[in-house]
Every structure is written in C-alpha cells, then in structure tokens.
Amino acid sequence: MPNMTKEELAGAVGGLLDDCDNYYDSQLKPDLQKAQEYYDGTMKDTPSDEGRSSAISKDVRATIKKVLPSVYRVFFGSDKIVEYAPVAEGDEGSADQATDYVNYIVLPESGGQRAIYDAMHDALLKRNGVLKWFVEKRKETETSTLDGLDMEAAQMLVSDQSIEILGAAQDDLGFYTVQIKRQFDKKNVILECVPRSEFRIHPDAKTIDDSPIVAQVTTKRRGELIAAGYDKATIEALSAADGADLLNLDEDNESKRSIGTSAQGHHPSIDEIEVAECFVRVDYDGDGVAELRRVIMAGGRGEEHIIVNEPWDDMVPFGDLVAESEPHQWEGRSIPDDIEEVQRVKTVLLRNTLDNIYWQNNLQPIVQSDSVENPESITNPRFGEPIRVKSGKSVQDAVGYSSVPFVAAQSFQMLGYMDNIVTDRTGISDAASGLAPDALQNTTAKASAMIEQSGIAQTDMVVKNFAHGLQRVFKGVLRLIVQHQDKPRTVRLRDKWVTFDPRYWDAGMDASVNTGLGAGTRERDMMALQFVMGMQEKLLANFGAVDNPYVKPDNLWNTISRMVEASGLKTVSLYFTKPDEQEIQQMSEAARNRPDPETVKHKNAIELEDARARTAERREAACVEANRQIKQADLFRSSEDNAQKRLAETQRDERRAMLEQYRIDRMAEIEREKIASSERIALHRTERELQKSQAAAFASALERGVHQ
Question: Any alpha helices (H) in 143-231, and if so which ranges?
C-alpha cells in the first residue's frame, strides 16, 4: 500500500487529538481547576455569605507543603540523583562518566532540578507531573574587537565565512583594529516541566509508551517559529490563535496575563499560534504496522497546518511522575482528591466558628427608638460616642442586647476530628513531617514511632512512584546526549579537568534513581546508618578488613557517604576520600602473599621451644657458675676476714701507743707550764720587794733632806 497522504495523516492525527481534547475538557479540566482553586484558597464552589466570615481553611496547600520538602530532600539530598549501570562487560568506565556528566553538567545546565521540583508539585496537586526532554538548537552571536593585527591576520578574518566584519581601522604603524561578529550553533539538552493544560494523552492509555498519541499543545509566537527554522512563507500564512484557544491553554494560573485582544500584538511576528507537537502511532507506510512518527501541526488541524512529518525511532520524549497510581489507567491520584471534601467542611466550620465569636464580641442591640435621642450611636456606633437617653426614660428599658449562645467550642473539636481524617487519608501529619516538636508531647515513644512510621510508609510509596517515573526520564536524557553530542567536551569537575565523549557510550544503559533511605527525618536516617556501621565494624573485627566475605570497601564507602548525606552535607569528598581500586587490589595481593597463619603459628611454636631449651641450658650453666663464684667468694671472704682482723689489732695497738704518747707529752707540757708559772711568780715577788726597798730608800733620803 502507498504512504498516507497528507490529508489522511492530518485526519488521523486530528481525530486522536480531538479524543484527547474531549477527555481533557470533560473529565480532567474541571478536576484540575478545582484542585488549583483549593490550593490557592479561592474555592469558588464554597462562596461566603455577604457580611459573614470569608475565611478559608487551606488544607490542600498545607498538606502539600508538609510532604513536598521531605520528598524533594530524598532525591536532591545527595550529589547524584541518578546512577547509570553498564549493560555489557567493559562499560563500567562509560557508566561512571555518564553518571558524572548527567548529575554535575547536564542537570544544572538544563534546568532539570527546577523542572523535577515543578513536576513533583504537579503530581501532588494535579495527579500527574509531566517532564519533557529535548535538544534546543539556537544560533548565538558573539561580538568582539581585535587590535594589533597585521595584514595577513586581517585577511584571514575577511576570508572566514563564519565571521562578519563590522568595522576596521588602521593605525600609523600599519596595524589593524577590527570589530567582528561571529555566529555559531549551540545545542543544549533541556529538561522542562510541561503544564498539565498543555499535555495530551489518549484516554485509553495506561502508560505513555502504549498511548496511540502523546502531544504537547501550546502557543508560540510567529517570530519564534520562523527563528526555529520553519518555512517562513508557511508560518506567515498560518492564522493566529483566537482568544478562546488561548484561554483554554492558559488556565490554572499558568499564565498570569489577561487573555483577549490585548494579548495579540500589532505586528504579525508576535501573533500567537497554536502548535501541537504530536508523537503518534500510525501506519504511514501501509505495511499494516503502526509506526511512531513526530508530527507538528501549527495554526489548526488541517493538512495545510502540518509543518513537520518525520519518523521517530526513539522513545517518546515525555515522562510522568505520579504520587498515587491508579490500576489500568495513566491518570493518577493527588492530594486534593483525598482532602478537598475535608477542606470544604473545615472552611464552613471555620466560618461558622468565627461568625459565632464575632457575634459574641459584637452583640445585636435591642433599642426603643423613641427612648434614644441619637439611635445612630447604636446602629452605627463610634468609639467613645455616648448614647443619649431621653429624659424620664429608663436606660435598661431603652437599650438592651440579644443573647447569643457560644457554640464555637464544639466546632473546635470538630476541626480536630477533620484533621485526623486528613492524616488517615494521606498519612501526612505534623508528627510524620517532623514540623511540630510538641506534636507528640503527651504520646508514648512506641505510639509516637507508630504514628511516624505510618505516615512515612505512605510518603515512601510516593517516593518510589516518583523514582520509577524519573528512571524513564533519565534513560531518555542519556539517549538524547549520546545522539546529539557530536564532539568531546572538557569541563572542570572536582577541581580537575575531565573530558567527556558521549559518542562512545551505550545509550541503552540502565538508570537507577537514588532515593537513599526513603522519606523520613534525618534522625531516623542517621540511626539506621549508625546501626549498619556498627554491624560492619563487628564483621570487620571478626573476619578482617582484607577479603572480608561480608563487608567490602565499597560497602563501607556507601555507608560513610550516606551518613554524610543524611547529616545534610552534600559533597562527601570534602570529608572522606573514596579508596582507589588499584590501591585496594595491591593491599589484597600483599595480604594474599603473606604466609599461612597456621604455618606461622607452628613455626613460632618451634622457635619458642628452641628458645626455651636454650634458655634452660643457659640458666643451668649460670647456676653452676654462680655456685663456683659463691664458693670462691666464701674462701676469699674467710682469708680476708683474718687479714682484716690482724690489721684491726695492729691499728688498735698503734692508736693506743699514739694515745699513750699523747698523754705523756701532755703531762710534760703541763709540768713545764707549772714550773714556768712558779718562776714567774717568784720573779714577780722579787721585783715587788725590790720596788719596796727602793721606795723606802727614796723616802729616807727625802726625809733627810728636809731636816737639813
């Protein structure tokens, strides 16, 4: 059979798109709009009465804000959100390079982190979050000024077809200053979140892969399509989208501008055109088998609106995240599906409670108008304004207030009951999210753990569903990189320059999304990792660090890295160094070359016995020598004692002789002193007698002279 005509293709694609639009408009759109209204707190289905409380209980928003940070941390709490595994022997190096390239280069450059966050938010609020990956090709312009060029260099610039000369000047020395503009093609991998209002999938689809059509219906400006490389005449002939089409695509606050004639510019280049990028399965070549094709229709659904029609031999470049999957259908369940009813009931209860309190604080007056001179002071009171009662009228009779019973206490209990319903339906509570330190203040530790675990279990299911969806996304991103990056790229990674060449990678490598320990608090994660570390330490102590059958170096490294991530630190290499495989292998070889421990033990035992025998021989010889020396010492001591005794007696006799001689000498000295003393006394006596006789003679002579 011949190929499909353009008319037949447009009819097949348009019919499938109509099925998708009808399903979306009749079943999905009302639910998604309602979910957005409940999240925003507008709640058009629960209007407030005039003059009454208009408060709204934002349970949908509060619940999503509780669970989203925990789920987001599971995926982005570590450096690597995805790891690629080799599918053939020898691909280990390529798998490691692909892991680093996607995590550290592609995700930041493609805006992937924000896209995944938006998709998670959509999944929790609008049932399914849709991600799309593609290569953005664009021309970039770089303007620069080159000076100091000689004639040869300037001519080389002029001959370069990729360079446009904007201006040139020559100085006095003959050198040129040239201003140039260079245009070059740039390709970037883009990962974006597709708004739910733009995504179309067939109502019979169970997955993206088995859907007969998957499409994104959006609007683009006419100038954007021409800049993207589409035929200018074809694009200029397309009709712009009308206001109704734009309003249908810009619902749910996804576009913040007003829709109408003001959205259309005066220049045709800024006219907005509806563009449907479809990945459709049709039997285009007439062989009876439906093949996947990429068809882009702009400005309508007719044959004249087909601007791209090409075979597509790759996977459909869409992936979806779902919080709670429904069996046998693509559409999932979201948090608003579970608690919209609760939010509506709580909103009514909250309004009635506040109205009751308002009535209590502002009682309704009972007035006899003919008894009050200024009744407006009661009907429209102002602070401090007096109420003037007419003369002769009783104040109690003139003014009174109606009694309003206080029933808000019962409403408070009901509000708490509705909160319990939210927890039962979603598993999300303050206890499970770890937001309120006093949430379990009066609860036993076991009950607290049970409450927390029940909430974490449901959140863990959300994490597993998200990981399953992201697995497809990262497989598609890798295939896109391998297909479109046509030259090596050198980037700085971990303070080193690394060259990546995806051309030689296996595009079919398996992708594993890291979820760590799942949802839960950091304390829970750290406790689990500490338990694992304790078991590893025991096994290492019992079986050794080398060739341990239970704990390998990679096992220990995984525990350490997860503990760093659980503590809130992302870069493990700042704190620990991953052991080098070659170094580990060398250590293992050295350990294997060591002698057998039993042989060493036996050898050591023999050497120990020999040492003991030699020690005993030396001890015996030492004893014999010691006995000989003792006997010799005894003999020497005996002879030495006799000699010492004789010497002592001789010394004693000498001392005695010396003492006797000293005594004799002393006695002689004393005798000599006595004799000398006697002689001195006699001499002194003689001298005194002589002096006396001389004095008597002198006196006698003196007396004789007087008488004469």
Answer: 151-159, 222-227
